[in-house]
Amino acid sequence: MAARVTFLALLLCLSTTVIRAEDPYLFFTWNVTYGTISPLGVPQQGILINNQFPGPNINSTTNNNIVINVFNNLDEPLLFSWNGIQHRKNSWQDGMPGTNCPIQPGKNFTYHFQVKDQIGSYFYFPSTAFHKAAGGFGGLHVNSRLLIPVPFADPEDDYQVIIGDWYTKSHSTLRKILDGGRSINRPDGVLINGKSGNGTDEPLFTMKPGKTYRYRICNVGIKTSLNFRIQGHMMKLVEMDGSHVVQNTYDALDIHVSQCLSVLVTANQTPKDYHMVASTRFIKQVFTTTATIRYEGSNIPASPELPEGPTGIVYSLNQFRSFRWNLTASAARPNPQGSYHYGGINITRTIKIVNSASTVDGKLRYAINGVSHTNPETPLKLAEYYQVPEKVFKYDTIPDEPTPESADKITVQPNVVNATFRDFIEIVFENHEKSIQSWHLDGYSFFAVAIEAGKWTPEKRKNYNLLDAVSRHTIQVYPGCWAAIMLTFDNAGIWNLRSNLWERYYLGQQLYVSVTSPARSLRDEYNVPDNAELCGIVKDLPKPPPYTI
How many CB atoms lie within 10 A of CB 79? Predict the structure, then answer.
């Protein structure tokens, strides 16, 4: 009898272990529609998720499985992408035109991805048809697991701040301007959480005197870097693009397009209302908007005198250089971030990327090393998985070192770079234009090791930060400057490297990096999901043999 009890106890223990091994699931249903919004006082067509603009925040924890059933009630095909989420082994969920067939009008598609080994502040957005200019974006939080120490005390509350430039023209009108070969020019204003801060709005957030709050700030705009500050309060930077950072204190922070960061703010001032301020950077006309923070129980209005924003590039460049990876903090796993010594790895390949603008057949196009990307009817990833890439695109249409001719002559075609699995790569971005650039790489974080003025040469490597550069997914490049990043291509799939300036992205300043595991093994990459939409030339092809262990 005792032996039987022991055996049953063992079975119970084993069954409990199996249950606990399954990471939690979060389920969402999104109804995506058009709706009339007036964020700048002008009624216009916006994109709503469950009747919300901006869309609902996703609040998750490291390793959670996120399942989102998206119903497309627009009149155009639709995709969502998850800015900064790495989708380990699973570019099928990346939601870019190079990886997925779009969700057709009146149809639905269920995304299922895991926020594997990540923490931090991110956002989602629609990646198709210039929809991002109409909304459809929202915050995506990945909190640390309880067993992982966080390098700051639990805040009293956790607030999402969505900032971005805004146009009063509809996304379809802006798209027609671009399709006609012209630029959309400057924005019409700036929003904070979907509003323009005309002074009549209720307080956005409330703080208790003496308490500390976490503000997650993301620039979801389509063209303009923004500066963010809080009247009368200092901000302690604690996290940036998914990495804990050395906790310096700032009175203002530049946040470039598609970047996210977290700050701690303590309510240590006279109890009353205070303005959050977001203003444009690096454009001639400065647009400013505000939102109100109220101390609990206060009825004293905020001062109309707003803190001034910074000017010039030097301020922003010096601020970038002040950002440092927190080497002693744990991120998604118990081991400290600094246990990964990226500075001691030999570089196996250097890719230099130069952005350019020119005309093709009289119409404006943007390019990388002389190639302006266009999306084929068949997504690149599907063509590769079904083993028919040669019918859809060519690999390595750009050289690793741009030629002098590429600055003037632009070729329009799919732009795909073939990368060797697990190679350690250096990518250098050179910006010869007069406007700031912002770049993002899906599927990865990279080490932003340097930004300097002038042109890059190999001798510049002596200036790299090879110890504590922040691991992040977005990097800005100032006019007449270069930026260098380093990373290991260890996440198999096809991943989008793009300009975050949306007219540039739409008109070709992007490419895809194909990272293929020669083993075709489930250890390296997942098979195409059973619910994946098929389109283009693969629609009626037999499914190839699946990857196995």
Answer: 25
Which residues fall within 8 angstroms of residue 14, CB to CB, at 6 or more apart? none
pTM, to two decimals: 0.95
Which residue is it, tokens 């802006």?
Answer: 174
Residue 451, both tokens? 């930004």
Neighbour count for residue 301 (Cβ, 10 Å):
12
Q: Is 459 helix (H, G, I), strand (E, B) or coil?
A: helix
Which residues 6+ apart lie within 8 Å of 333 measured at CB? 117, 148
Classify residue 460 by its DSSP letter: G
Torsion of CA 354, 515, 348, 474, to 10 degrees: 50
Q: How many CB atoms lie within 10 A of CB 431?
A: 22
The least confident of 21-30, 56-65, 182-191, 459-468 is 21-30
Q: Rounded distance, CA 28 to CA 67, Å?
A: 6
CA distance 113 to 432: 38
> Is the separation of the CB atoms in 490 and 446 below 8 Å?
no
Nearest Cα to Cα of residue 413 among 456, 447, 365, 452: 365
Mapped onto helix, strand or coil, the DSSP state of residue 537 is helix
CA 402 to centroid of chain Cα atoms: 26
Q: Environment class of residue 107 by beta-carbon count within 10 Å: exposed (0-12), middle (13-18) or buried (19+)?
A: middle
90 within 8 A of 493, measured Cβ to Cβ = yes
pLDDT in tens, 456-504: 999 999 999 999 999 999 999 999 999 999 999 999 999 999 999 999 9
What CA–CA distance (Å, rounded) separates 458 from 484? Answer: 11
The whole-angstrom distance between residue 44's C-alpha and the CA centroid of its chain comes to 26
Neighbours of 511 (CB within 10 A): 24
Peptide bond into 54 cis (omega under 30): yes
Compute the Cα dihedral for 244, 350, 505, 184 and give only its sign. Answer: positive
Q: Which helix (H) or strand (E) holds 499?
A: strand 493-499
Interacting residues of 491 by C-beta distance below 8 A, sequence separation 6+: 86, 87, 88, 89, 91, 443, 444, 515
Helices H / strands E in the chain, number of each: 5, 33
Could you write out the DSSP letters of every residue in 126-171? Answer: E-STTGGGGB--EEEEEEPPTTS--SSPPPS-EEEEEEEEE-SS-H
| Strand 510-516, strand 416-420: pairing | parallel
In the three-class reduction of DSSP (H, G, I as helix; E, B as strand; rest coil), residue 381 is classed as helix
Q: What residues pair up with 482 in beta bridges, in sequence order?
A: 430, 452
Alpha-carbon distance of 173 to 503, in angstroms, equals: 13
pLDDT of 20 above 50? no
